[in-house]
Write a structure and sequence with these properties.
Elements: H1 2-20, H2 33-44, H3 57-75, H4 79-85, H5 93-99, H6 102-105, H7 107-126, H8 134-147, H9 170-195, H10 200-219, E1 231-238, H11 243-250, H12 254-269, E2 278-280, E3 286-290, H13 303-312, E4 315-323, E5 335-345, E6 349-357, H14 374-378, E7 396-398, E8 402-408, H15 415-424, E9 431-436, H16 446-461, E10 465-469, E11 474-477, E12 483-487, E13 493-500, H17 508-512, H18 515-537
Parallel strand pairs: 1-2, 2-4, 3-4, 8-9, 9-10
Antiparallel strand pairs: 1-13, 4-5, 5-6, 7-8, 10-11, 11-12
Helix pairs in contact: 1-2, 1-3, 2-9, 3-7, 4-5, 7-8, 8-9, 9-10, 9-16, 9-18, 11-12, 12-13
């Protein structure tokens, strides 16, 4: 029984603990739970055992699979709901198919097993014992989090967001620094427990710097100080259109289109006490595919936007399907998932200003990852949109000379993507607009987790985020982790709010990215090695 508990039960429970560190519907999360989860998993991995005879990669693969299954059961079981709504896969087949997605939830752990197996082989042949130092192992895992391809990245450092605004180091090194210190503490304690030795020097080092890490976050909390007089009056239209109605409108049903338009008109044109500067609709709000090239002269704009623009006199940002001419006759991807900007001109009325075309497409939702096989598979698999990939980062300018960038749906989850965007535009934007549609996931954990992970971009880049969704959760997020306002999931409502702004300067994390965490880790590694050599010279090798 004890053996079964070790092999099967503990990894499953550890996976549940990992998911516990992220938002769960109707259940409070705990930011330290993922650290305990990683300790329980890694402590049982035989590939990390100091005894070569104990190593068994098959057992470890089973443990990681169970770990991922536990995370899926508690935290990511919204995937079957997506398969039911989006893929039209009926119960219980949607849960059977959805369970296969466990290998996609935390792929960094499978990558970890493969690379550690390779390192073990190299160590056996060439001697690489130094690599197994807890500091280098922690840095190694940070690399895996950052560079292993992921659909829905949930990293160890993300769970620290629950302590905001007491995350003062976030703009300096981002999530990687929080993951690194968490992994370092885990691997250091694990080494002591496994080897049944108290390494006093290493213990003092890790707890001293971990305490400094905590103090740095707590004593210098995040603050957002907008400039007086710099603000925009926003309205977010959360129409909460059901998936069946959205699909029907996109297929050209006149009745469905009329109903969709009426919902947007109702929320967009309802009275408000202050004059609106910017009206925002969510991802793929407009059901027809448009050709923006026809709008360059200010003509041929859809009557819906002319009507709303004339009434509100506000600029608009909305998600839509934008036509993209095929590069060759065999190109079956002809549509972009775009964020489109209209500006209101007192003399010309509504004027098309530009669009951002989504660049990070979701595999199996918006494209297929099989390269030259995609056209052939596209004839078989019909429930995928097959979008073209955008090629250019766009900087938008709205009223009062306020600039913004846009990230669509899951693009907001990737620090590297937002960092590349910020470094590519001509000047620092005042804010970011995230257009998304989470209705495909139902009333599950996903909308909460999507919002939770998106908040990190506000902290890392000192950048307010306006999140506009079809079904919720719509919100305005500030760089201290606070929210100006939000609309809950599943309601049809408008969100009127003042977006307070300031002129931004790039954060250190925006400038240097992962490099800061690497430098910190190497400095600590140098200190650890120096301290160990000093003690060894004094005859205190085991301290």
């Amino acid at each position: 029984m004890k053996r079964l508990s070790t092999i099967y039960f503990e990894p499953l429970v550890a996976g549940c603990f990992y998911a516990w560190g992220f938002p769960l519907k109707g259940f409070p999360s705990f930011f330290l739970a993922p650290m305990l989860a990683i300790f329980l998993l890694c402590y049982r991995l035989t590939l990390l055992s100091p005894k070569v005879s104990e190593r068994n990669w098959k057992k470890d693969l089973g443990r990681v699979l169970l770990f991922s299954l536990g995370a899926w059961l508690l935290g990511y079981s919204w995937i079957p709901e997506t398969l039911r709504i989006f893929g039209e896969i009926i119960f219980p087949l949607n849960y059977l198919v959805g369970s296969l997605s466990t290998v996609l939830i935390l792929p960094q752990f499978f990558t970890f097993l493969i690379l550690v197996a390779v390192l073990n082989a190299l160590h056996k042949r060439f001697g690489l014992k130094f690599f197994y130092h807890p500091i280098l192992m922690a840095l190694f895992f940070v690399f895996l989090e950052e560079f292993t391809p992921q659909l829905f990245p949930t990293h160890l450092g993300h769970s620290w967001l629950q302590l905001a605004p007491y995350l003062g180091l976030a703009p300096y090194a981002g999530v990687p620094l929080f993951s690194f210190f968490s992994f370092w503490l885990i691997f250091e304690v694990m080494a002591m427990v496994r080897e049944k030795k108290l390494f006093k020097s290493r213990l003092i080092l890790v707890f001293s710097f971990f305490a400094l890490f905590i103090l740095g976050n707590v004593l210098f909390p995040l603050k957002y100080t907008p400039t007086e007089g710099q603000s925009l009056e926003l309205r977010l239209a959360q129409v909460n259109i059901e998936s069946y109605l959205k699909l029907a409108s996109e297929k050209g049903s006149t009745k469905a289109v009329k109903e969709v338009f009426s919902k947007y008109v109702e929320l967009s044109m309802s009275p408000r006490s202050k004059r609106m500067d910017l009206l925002i609709w969510p991802e793929t709000a407009y059901p027809y595919t448009i050709d923006s090239k026809l709008w360059l002269d200010g003509k041929n704009l859809p009557p819906l936007f002319l009507q709303i623009g004339e009434y509100t006199r506000a600029d608009m940002v909305w998600g839509g399907y934008e036509w993209g001419a095929p590069a060759n006759p065999d190109d079956f991807e002809t549509t972009y998932n775009s964020a489109i900007h209209f500006a209101h001109d007192p003399e010309k009325g509504m004027v098309f200003k530009g669009s951002y075309r989504k660049m990070r497409l979701i595999p199996f939702g918006e494209t297929l990852p099989f390269g030259p096989l995609n056209p052939w598979l596209g004839e078989i698999i019909k429930n995928i949109s097959y979008f073209k990939k955008g090629e250019k980062f766009e900087l938008f300018t709205t009223k009062k000379d306020k600039t913004f960038i846009s990230a669509i749906c899951y693009e907001i989850l990737f620090s590297s993507f937002v960092r590349d965007y910020l470094k590519s535009v001509s000047r620092p934007p005042h804010f970011l607009i995230n257009l998304t549609n989470d209705s495909w996931y139902g009333d599950t954990n996903e909308p909460l987790q999507h919002l939770f992970l998106a908040k990190w971009r506000a902290l890392e880049f000192d950048l307010p985020i306006v999140r506009s969704t079809n079904s919720g959760i719509s919100a305005i997020i500030y760089p201290d982790g606070s929210e100006e306002a939000r609309l809950p999931y599943g309601v049809k409502e408008k969100l009127d709010a003042e977006l307070k702004l300031k002129d931004r300067t790039p954060t250190l994390y925006e400038r240097f990215g992962l490099m800061i965490t690497i430098v910190v880790a190497l400095i600590l590694f140098g200190l650890a090695i120096g301290l160990e050599k000093s003690l060894r010279a004094k005859g205190h090798a085991n301290e």
